[in-house]
């Protein structure tokens, strides 16, 4: 028997090599709605925190849990839900995620107190995790093999643009409505994605191993403590608190690794991490999203404080990055069908690093054009990286481990972003005056490391 889990067919016919064109378009539309909503709600609530805190009569510090609990729920449950997708089928997990996310969004809109909103956000985060944990694996069933790069490009486009435009979209909604509409808008979109998905999303092969609840519990606690530690470090918690969280993180990761040591399809995919191509894809992803996290948190401070731009100007100056990602992601996806993901990702990340360095080295009074073209260069590099990296991830995992690979795609992204945000806080602790500049230098360094890791995949393929 193979060392990997054997597969059994689902009750529904499984496409041999992707869906027909019309069905494929509908399936991607359903998937894109779910992925877009999950990505938007990672950041969209940030803008509304002051209004939420005021209306719910809570403190700004307590209201931060509205953000934190969503991220915690996502990171903690990504790998268990991805593993569940391998066992019961990605389609079922994805539809569950769409339904839970939609109902939880309604709960957020109807929340009457901070605890009720936090609970709804927790459930919303689990729903988003179900969608994000298996969406990349689902692309394998939707697209034929020779078009997978296009599928990854579309996925990368949706994630990147949703993350980039989230704050702007939130501001637009809040300019014409109150904060519950930030969540209520998800309800019709989510229901449309759910019912369309029921009709068009394909069934996928299923593994015959069982789901281990204790392993899932260890995973949830380990990743929750890890993200809590990042958040507390960013908010300058005491060394005692950080030490306790670090000890708990190490303990539960050790328990997790011990529990799944003999499992043929471990939830934390150490079997895949032994593959150089997969491990380098993880390193590339974590470092790249740490660079993005550093840049996206630091740049508004850099534009506003260091360069003296207004809040409105700052919002517009962030736009070229998102626009160029939207242009480049589909192009990179098509190229990844023909060229090495390691080379494409490495080139894109070198461009991202160059753009970040160019931003730091600007004159003290740059024009809007000087800033915009540099932001555009960053967007070109970031957009050029994503689809090839997804292909590197999924191409280095066997079909029966697609769920775990997909889960690691999302996990590495969120861990990278959390790392970047925490490092921005540290940079401002070192220097309140130059913290944004230090953070941008750190972002450029992470981009350089990510570029080297991506180019390293060229050697991994040869070996």
Note down, in words, how this protein is organized:
The longest helix is centred in the middle third of the chain and has 31 residues, at 276-306. By secondary structure, the protein is mostly helical. It has 19 helices and 2 strands. The protein has a two-stranded antiparallel ribbon. It has 3 domains: 12-210, Growth Hormone, Chain: A (Up-down Bundle), CATH 1.20.1250; 213-262; 272-463, MFS general substrate transporter like domains (Growth Hormone, Chain: A, Up-down Bundle). Residues 27-462 form the Major facilitator superfamily (MFS) profile domain. The chain crosses the membrane at residues 26-49, 61-81, 93-112, 118-143, 155-175, 181-201, 213-231, 237-257, 278-303, 315-335, 342-361, 438-460. It comes from Pseudomonas abietaniphila.
What is the chain-wise order of helices and strands?
A: EHHHHHHHHHEHHHHHHHHHH
Shape: globular
The helicity comes to over 70%
Q: What structural class do you assign from the helix and strand content?
A: mainly alpha
Whole-number tally of structural domains: 3
Termini separation:
25 Å
Q: What is the makeup of the main sheet?
A: 2 strands, antiparallel
CATH-defined topology of the largest domain: Growth Hormone, Chain: A
Number of strands: 2
CATH class of the largest domain: Mainly Alpha
Report the β-strand fraction as a percent range: under 5%
Q: What is the annotated CATH architecture of the largest domain?
A: Up-down Bundle
What average pLDDT do the residues reach?
84
Q: Low-confidence parts lasting 5 or more residues at pLDDT below 50? A: 1-12
CATH homology superfamily of the largest domain: MFS general substrate transporter like domains
Strand order of the largest sheet: 1-2
């Amino acid at each position: 028997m193979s060392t990997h889990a054997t597969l059994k067919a689902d009750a529904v016919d499984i496409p041999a090599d992707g869906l027909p064109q019309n069905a494929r378009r509908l399936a991607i539309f359903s998937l894109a709605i779910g992925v877009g909503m999950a990505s938007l709600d990672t950041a969209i609530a940030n803008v509304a925190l002051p209004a939420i805190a005021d209306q719910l009569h809570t403190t700004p510090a307590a209201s931060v849990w509205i953000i934190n609990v969503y991220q915690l729920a996502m990171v903690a449950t990504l790998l268990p839900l991805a593993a569940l997708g391998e066992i019961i089928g990605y389609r079922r997990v994805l539809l569950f995620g769409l339904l839970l996310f939609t109902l939880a969004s309604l709960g957020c809109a109807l929340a009457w107190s901070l605890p009720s909103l936090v609970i709804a956000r927790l459930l919303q985060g689990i729903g988003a995790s179900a969608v994000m944990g298996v969406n990349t694996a689902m692309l394998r069933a939707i697209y034929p093999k020779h078009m997978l790069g296009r599928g990854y490009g579309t996925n990368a486009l949706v994630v990147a643009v949703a993350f980039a435009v989230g704050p702007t979209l939130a501001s637009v909604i809040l300019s014409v409505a109150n904060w519950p509409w930030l969540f209520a808008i998800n309800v019709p979109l989510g229901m449309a994605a759910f019912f369309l998905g029921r009709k068009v999303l394909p069934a996928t092969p299923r593994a015959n191993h069982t789901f281990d609840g204790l392993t899932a519990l260890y995973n949830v606690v380990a990743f929750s403590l890890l993200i809590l530690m990042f958040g507390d470090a960013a908010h300058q918690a005491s060394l005692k608190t950080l030490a306790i969280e670090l000890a708990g993180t190490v303990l539960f990761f050790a328990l997790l690794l011990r529990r799944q040591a003999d499992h043929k399809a471990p939830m934390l995919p150490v079997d895949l991490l032994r593959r150089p191509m997969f491990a380098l894809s993880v390193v590339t992803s974590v470092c790249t999203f740490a660079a993005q996290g550093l840049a996206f948190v630091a740049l508004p401070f850099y534009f506003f404080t260091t360069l003296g731009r207004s809040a409105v100007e700052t919002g517009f100056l962030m736009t070229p990055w998102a626009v160029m990602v939207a242009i480049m992601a589909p192009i990179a996806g098509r190229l990844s069908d023909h060229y090495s993901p390691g080379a494409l990702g490495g080139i894109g990340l070198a461009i991202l690093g160059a753009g970040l360095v160019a931003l730091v080295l600007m004159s003290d009074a740059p024009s809007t054009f000087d800033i915009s073209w540099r932001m555009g260069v960053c967007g070109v590099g970031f957009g050029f990286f994503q689809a090839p990296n997804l292909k590197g991830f999924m191409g280095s995992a066997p079909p029966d481990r697609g769920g775990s690979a997909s889960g690691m795609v999302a996990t590495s992204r969120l861990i990278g972003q959390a790392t970047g945000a925490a490092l921005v806080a540290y940079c401002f602790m070192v220097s309140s005056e130059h913290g944004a500049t230090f953070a941008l230098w750190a972002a450029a360094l992470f981009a350089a490391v990510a570029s080297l890791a991506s180019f390293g995949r060229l050697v991994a393929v040869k070996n």
